[in-house]
Structures are given as C-alpha cells and as structure tokens.
Amino acid sequence: MSTPSNGNSRSNRNRIANEQRLAALGEAIDQRSGRASRPAPRGRRGGRGGSRGRRRVIISLVVVGALIFGVVGGGYLYAQWRFSNITKITNNAEQPLKGPAFNIMVLGQDSGIGLTAAQAAKTGRNSVSGARSDVVKIVHVNPTTGTISMISIPRDTMVTMMADQSVFGTYNRINAAFNGAPGISGPALVAKTITANFGIPINYTVVVSFAGMINIATAVGGVYLDFKYLARDPYSQLNITHTGCQLVTGFQALALVRSRHYYWQNSGHTPWPKGGNNWALSTLNRTGWFYDGTSDFGRIERQNAFLRALVNRLKTETNVLKLNSVLSALPQGLTIDSKMTLNWLISLGLRFKGVGANSIATYTLPTDSKVINGADMLVAQQPTTQQLLVNTFGNELTAPTNPAPNAALQSVQPPIVYATTTTVPKHSTTSGKSSKHHKPVATTTTTSPTAVQYYYNPSPCTPKY
Fold first, then answer.
1. H-helix or E-strand containing 82?
2. How wide is the angle at C-alpha 258 spanned by C-alphas 254 and 262, nearest 5°?
3. What is the enclosing helix (H) or strand (E) of 102?
4. Vertex 337, ends 150 and 255: CA angle to 5°?
C-alpha cells in the first residue's frame, strides 16, 4: 500500500482548516443576525466509517447533516442563503433538552402541494385538503456515544387522542392526529400525542411532503437499490421492470416509499397480467406474482432501505453542481424546525460524518393486531414496547400522562422495566446497550419487522461501472 503524498497531506490539512473556518463563520453570522448561537454537541468525535460509505418520505437529521457537510466546501454564505428559503415551523409541543441527546420527530405528509397535475392524479392527491401523516418516525441522536437510532410508529397504532375526541373518539389511529384541532397545528398535535402516550420527549420536528420526496430524489440523481425480483404496486404506481442494482429516482422513489401493496415477481419473466390492478391475489399468485402481506410493516422496511441508500448517496457525492441542485430542491416540500440553524446542522454533520448508513439502528414499535368496529387496528405490545423505549431513550423517557390503550382498550401505565440487552435475529441492523446496574423485571426481545431484511425487498447497493 502506497503512503500518502505530501500534496494529499497538505490537502487534508487545508480541508480541516476550512471546516473550522466555516464553523467560526457560521457562529459569527448567527450572532450578527441576532440569533443565540447553539453550542456544538459535546462528546467524542464520530467513529470510523463503514466500508460502504426520514406525502411519504423520510428525511432524518443525519441526511440533512450529511448534505450540509458536503455543501460547505462550495461556500457557506451561499448555503446560508439557500437554507433561509426552507420553510420553518415552530412546534410548541416540543420539550426542552435535558442533555446532549435529542429526538427528532420526522413526519411524512401526504399533501398534494407542489405536485404537477399528472403526479397528483397518480398519487390520488388531486386535492390539497385533509392531509395525513402516515409516516411517523422518531430519530434519536446521541452525540456523546456517536449513535443514531430510529423508531417507526405504524400509522394504524391506536393512541389516546389529545384533541377533538368528539370527532375522532377517545382512541384512534395515530395518523388521525395530524389533521389538527382548533388552537393546535398538525405536527404539534402529533408531538403532544406521542409524548402523552409513550413518554417520548420531542425536541425537533421535520415534515416532508410527496413533492419533497420527488424533488430530493431527482436532485441527487436518484439512489441505488438492488432489486432481486421485479416489483409492482398498482396503488402507488411502483413499477420495477428489471432486476439488479439500479437507479431509483423521481416519481418511482415516491412510489417505493409509499408502497403498502407490494408485489414481487418470483420467476422474473411472467408479465403483469392485463387488468392486474383488480385481480384477486390468488390469480396473481398463479401467474407468478406474489403479494407482500405485511402492509405498513413492509413499507417501513422499504422506507428504511431508501433512507440508507440516500445517506450513502449524499455522503459520497462531491459534485458541487449536483449538491447545489439538492440544496435548491430542499425548500420544495421540506419543513424543518425553526430551532435548527445551519451552523448547528453543520456541527452535527461534522460530528457524524464517519457514521455509515448501515450503522443507523432501526426499529418498529412492537404491536398486536386487533379488529375494532370491523377495522384492523394495532395496539402497543407490552412489555415489549416499553422495553424498546427504555433501551433507546433511557432516563429521557417520562411517565405517559395519557397512556396508549391496550388490547382491552384501557389506558393503563406501561410496566416498569429496566435497560437490558436486546436479542436480534440474523441479518439484523439493530443494536442494543446493556445495563449492569439494574436487573430487568422481564427479559424481552425488542426486535421488529424492520430488523429483518425480507429477501424480496430491495436493499442499498453500489453500482459497478
């Protein structure tokens, strides 16, 4: 292996010095604009990177941080101007920070705002009214340990409603909370609902729409995903016509992360039957197309795969013109917390630049199925749910004021559990920390469908040129 040349060493020193100057410049601009500066997160520097490299889109803080880190070399002032055009939101239901770790609530909104007429027709969002949030993710970032965890809450999870119970009932699906109520906006009501039901403090908010998904995927030039089988979703309009590692961009990226009626082709050559959108599942199965019956759980897995591929794309992108197009597309369909300054995001990007996409631990809230008034619902599974929350959030977790209902539709406090080592299946991407100070009340397994990569779903890949 050859040793680095003096030119490379000089380049590295200049890059590090430039990063420090950019951070200092951001601090000065924040002070001049009258904003209180936000100290960079404390803790150890990011660890070694892996060998490879959050209406429904997933843009998490790590994605934004990685993006900003890639852009800083192109000019901080230009990035500041672009950043100022991103829509900001003030969420009065957020909780104050208690330490260096924090939680970002990422919501995918199925609004038709920003879509073309053709795109709106394909998504069924010809009207911009009645927006919902079928994607609810909590991204837990711990700068001290250099770890990122993400918990997805399925859209059909039953929660105690915190407003308009005369309209939505005492208990309803969590995605109903986004509709809002008099005196409280959609994201604020969702944050209030999550904290009241599960004791998870929300510190920051990110909301992404259908248009935001399309714009970001197009701006980065698409993401690379490996499809081992052909795939279709007649509802989201997903249509993958060949197998292998391939570029997914634009509307197809949106169709993938929206897909809840996912079909995969086992033989690899049987055509999609004419009129197949209305065929019975058994008929499709006989023609070689198989149905993923996991519904929202499968969609969450595909969303996480797309997120990882997006992070990989942003971390390796060095083309300044492409990064400029990404930054230009961010204001279109993305809303971020007003407390998120560019200087703060740059600091996080630098802190976590060595964290690979595969290092992000992903979980889905453990639930049990229940039929209520003829409709399929999900209720939090205990004590598994509480064990996952304790393992992830630790002493940040608070006692729920309005606990989520159990299978008997009773709002009761969750069981007392202590942090314990999680048991994860083969091929899992999750991880857990153990505590030596307390003996757990019950040994549980905090895994989820997203911990296992189902063989027919796509996965991030690196193209061979």
1. helix 76-84
2. 115
3. strand 102-109
4. 55
Residue 334: phi and psi, rounded to 5, are: -120, 130
* Pair 40, 23: CB distance under 8 Å: yes
Q: Which range among 48-62, 193-207, 358-372, 413-427 has the greatest average pLDDT? A: 193-207
Three-class DSSP category at 328: helix
Work out the angle at residue 207's Cα, subtended by the Cα atoms of residues 213 and 390, and round it to the nearest 5 degrees: 115
Q: What is the mean pLDDT of residues 149-164?
A: 93
Asked if residues 347 and 68 have their Cβ atoms less than 8 Å apart, the reply is no
Domains of the chain, earliest start first: 42-260+295-381+447-465 (3.40.630.190)
What confidence score (pLDDT) does residue 239 get?
93
Query: H or E element: which one contains 78?
Result: helix 76-84
> Residue 3 carries which side chain, given as an amino acid letter?
T
With tokens 């990035």, the residue in question is 79
- Cα radius of gyration (the chain): 22
Please state the φ and ψ torsions of residue 105, each to the nearest 5 degrees.
-90, 120
Strand pairing partners for 361?
149
0.85 surpassed by pTM: no
- Which stretches within 114-223 are classed as H helix? 117-123, 165-168, 186-198, 210-219
Taken as a whole, the chain contains a residue count of 465
Mean pLDDT, the chain, integer: 75
| Bigger pLDDT: 81 vs 413 | 413
Q: How does strand 171-173 pair with strand 238-240?
A: unpaired
Q: Which residue, chain included where needed, has tokens 């101007």?
A: 81
Contacts of 231 (CB under 8 A, 6+ apart): 238, 239, 240, 262, 263, 264, 265, 456, 458
Element (H, E) at 12: helix 6-32
How far apart, in whole angstroms, are the C-alpha atoms of residue 456 and residue 227? 8
Q: Which stretches within 226-295 are classed as H helix? A: 250-258, 281-286
Task: Out of 67-81, 155-169, 181-195, 323-337, pick the least confident.
Answer: 67-81
Pick from 87, 63, 341, 69: nearest CA to 211: 87
- Can you read off the two tokens belonging to residue 362? 């992903």
What phi and psi, each to the nearest 5 degrees, are found at residue 256?
-70, -50
What percentage of the chain exceeds 90 in pLDDT? Answer: 37
pLDDT at 439 (0 to 100): 31
Residue whose entry in the numeric block shows the structure tokens 């996991």: 294
- pLDDT tens profile 339-392: 998 888 878 877 887 777 788 899 999 999 998 888 889 999 999 999 999 999
| DSSP H or E segment with residue 265 | strand 263-265
